[in-house]
Amino acid sequence: MKNTKKVLAVLLVLVMAIVALTGCGGGGKDAGFTPDANSVLNTNVLRVGMECGYAPYNWTQADDSNGAVPIKDTKDFAYGYDVMMAKLIAEELGYELEIQRIDWDSLPVALQSGKLDCVIAGQSITAERLQTVDFSEPYYYADVVCLVKADGAYGAAQNVADLAGATCTSQINTIWYDVLDQIADVDKLPPMETVPNMLVALDTGKVELVCTDMPTAMAAVVAYPDMKIVDFAGGTGFEVSDEEVNIGISIQKGNAELVEKINSVLANLTEEDYVEMMKQAIAVQPLSA
Questions:
Q1: pTM higher than 0.70
Q2: Which DSSP state fits 153?
């Protein structure tokens, strides 16, 4: 009996030691993550990636007007809602801000490789993306809408059923492109690389509608007055989950420390703050005058 107790005691100690070691290793999503030498956690320089071509979230301009930030290794500057948010986060956390311009489709790879600390680029927080990156809490909530020509075949559309048979497209690797399949008899063209490209497709008549989110649509109708937003009032729009309309900041998988720091800044903001910041971005976007 005494020997049995000793064995049990030894086993208990071993179990406790394993638990302790797991805790020291960070456990869960921290396990195996080690920030490299260029990480913001070692340099205090927050490297933020965005495409700089997705107004009103982010865009490229020639000068620093309205508080625009230099784009690394270029003579250009970036501004928009995402840059406003990046500046706020960097300021609150005491970091220097560095903006890198990277194609939309390459942003996840740049993040996973350690080239970036985070991506602030109007990304929806989807289950698929969460397999390869971590996300902050939402920094915007964006309804999915359609853009049509006001005097076009779908100018009077009020719900998804009214869009039947439309020729359409959207941006590559977005939920906007995926939800087009919910349109009856849809004529779905290949996706566009950028938001400006899909807006040109609509403007030139290549397509009859494009799908996007509300902020992008609001910016588009300022630049293209003959376009109209179909916002599906009364719940007659596309079927989407909350995760698909929640916009978050993606962070390298396992970097729980940076996730926590960014969330600590977002916790001090309200949805009304987000709306007001977006209005400010739309007011100064390119072609807004």
A1: yes
A2: T
